[in-house]
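Training component of the fellowship. As part of building independent skills, the fellow (R.M.) carried out the full modelling exercise for a liganded target. The chosen ligand was fe (ii) ion. The inputs are recorded below so that the supervisory panel can assess the work.
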Amino acid sequence: MKIAHISDLHFGAHDPAVLEALVAHLIEAGPHLVIASGDITQSATEAEFAAARAFFDALPMEVFVIPGNHDLPGLDLTRFLNPFGRYKRHLIDELNPELAAGPVHIKGINTARRILPHWNWANGAVSAKQRREIARTFEAATAPWRILVLHHPLMSPKEFPLDVAVFNKRPLLETISEQRIDIVLAGHQHHAYIETRQEEAHKTLFVSASTGMSTRLRRQPQGFNLLEFTDTTLRIDQLRYADGRFTTFEALSHTKSHTKPAASG
Ligand SMILES: [Fe+2]
Ligand SMILES: [Fe+2]
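Fellow's submitted model of the complex:
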């Protein structure tokens, strides 16, 4: 099973040539599913959401989408009264979606908040209720690969100066380890990297994608990830945009450490 992980599309601040190359690549590569990990729009306007909707509708495969901090309106009343109204109307009503397909079980969590106890409301958080929802999802999951999708990352690459990890990161890391989540997909930093965390016999990959097509570049060009699963193996291609097209700049092969939870009791 092939999955494309795209992030930070920022419709409204996107490069039309990169958009075109992205659509062409996705159609040609033909993944079964596209996961978009937030910041679908730049300013959460009706027009930007309509453009995003048209983009998703033009893709022949299923799309799994979660919101990012840019999908909340700026400092106007809508942000406080109906923060995800436009997102829901144009894209999908469910902010914490779930999907089981073939060898993967995927849970998305909305980390964007209208207000945060921090000077930077662009940061994100995961609530105790959401952690319980993650636990419930994966307790019932039977697919070999468990994937969590967040907009805000849990790790920062060594070369990245600003820590933008979600609030309540520690209890969430505990949930990830208890539920033996294999892969955490994220965006937000516009920076592609893969960090691993080994917990006893289990390994979790933290995979971040660069911005898929926005002009808001930070040290890296636009990019996305292609993940190809069998029941026991995974190959991740990290692609970058240059000269009108996306090509792989790094590929990683990974074998699942174990497929069944240890018997309890
Ligand atoms: Fe972004
Ligand atoms: Fe973001």
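The panel noted the following from the submitted structure. The radius of gyration is 17 Å. Residues 14 and 214 are 4 Å apart (CA to CA).
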